[in-house]
């Protein structure tokens, strides 16, 4: 096989994989946003399993490896896009080749059937409905670790699927730092008894919907290349850089839930839309890692849009829509969207305590994969850890172990990316303000207060977005900030912000 033949083969495979992936994405979007007849679930699950299996089978043909090896031998002759495509394809192939195809297809069928069951189990607060699914899902994940191989801890093999370079040793240290600095701060704030005025009452959902286009436009989400749906558990999904869709969920009695979930998912979407268009041809048009993706959603949602500067532009919009805010000022709104208190639901958690929610999931996943605990023990252990770390205890499965969709989708090893990504975001924001990364410094507060985040998005596009998977998270961080991953910026940001809000 010549170099030219190898490149053409990989590019043709990319076209087939993209088409199969798009079909699966549309299946999921349809089920999540419009709902499907219950009697169709078995066949839809089988169809999803077949599509995944066909995609896997095509990718795992021996000619894929032959093309990769041919191009690896011509590495010096490749451009940066070809080199990255060979790197990523080779890495994915060599991991996947150890997974029996029939096992992979069975697993994809299983998770396609499990997610609708999770929705009903959560609605009924009945963990027993999910127990047999979770047992099979975690059994597969343990076998997957053995198929992939690992050096120290089996969980490391799963982390690699979401955050290349992350491992248990790194995460144990990261969470130990948060436990030492942030957990005591949260307890001190609770002990202080200070409570800002809360945003309470009933807020018309129709008026909430009318706010969403403005929010999307504010963070730079191009709605002409996407759409907004409504679901039980908000997400962002991408068919291409010109079709990036986001979702949200409205609550009459919780205005800020839809507002900030929309900002969060729009942050993901902006990342996808701003990638170099050349990346799609090489299947590199995706986040450098899940953590880097989360860095974008959470820096928009929290660091920028929970700031005093954003409160200045948000308040007039809220006053226009809801009489409730008639007597509020921007300081009151800033304090209200930064209430720090222990809570049971991760997606509703305040910025300060959020990573403690992730720590619970990390510890449970790690223990399940190592075999130290059994799936049937999850509800009780989940509740115990919430009581230990956050000082509150779930009273039912819906507000406890069933609150997240991830495990029903087979996404084990995903959760730590949320915390890592939040720390990435703080590091990037620090560099943006200082003018690192070869770009001029950005006055983020000035941009937010002016209602124009284009300088922020331009810096992120140049230093993060445009690269997609062309560069690793470590390469992106080093080029943009001048150093490797440093969670100290995250800890300092949280400590300074919430100490000023509550303890001064």
Give the overall silhouette: globular
Uncertain segments are: none
Largest sheet entry: 3 strands, mixed
Oligomeric form: single chain
Task: Count all strands and give the number.
Answer: 3
Mean pLDDT value: 93
Percent range for β-strand residues: under 5%
Enumerate how many helices there are, as a single number.
Answer: 20
Radius of gyration computed on alpha carbons: 23 Å
Name the helicity range: 55-70%
Task: Tell me the distance between the termini.
Answer: 69 Å
Strand order, sheet with most strands? 1-3-2
What this model shows, in words?
It is a single chain. The protein has 504 residues and is an all-alpha fold. 62% of the residues lie in helices and 3% in strands. The chain has 20 helices and three strands. The chain has helices at 3-34, 41-59, 62-73, 80-96, 101-124, 131-148, 155-159, 168-192, 205-219, 255-273, 290-304, 308-321, 330-336, 354-370, 378-390, 416-434, 444-449, 454-463, 473-481, 488-502, and strands spanning 228-230, 236-240, 243-248. Strand 2 and strand 3 (243-248) form a beta hairpin.
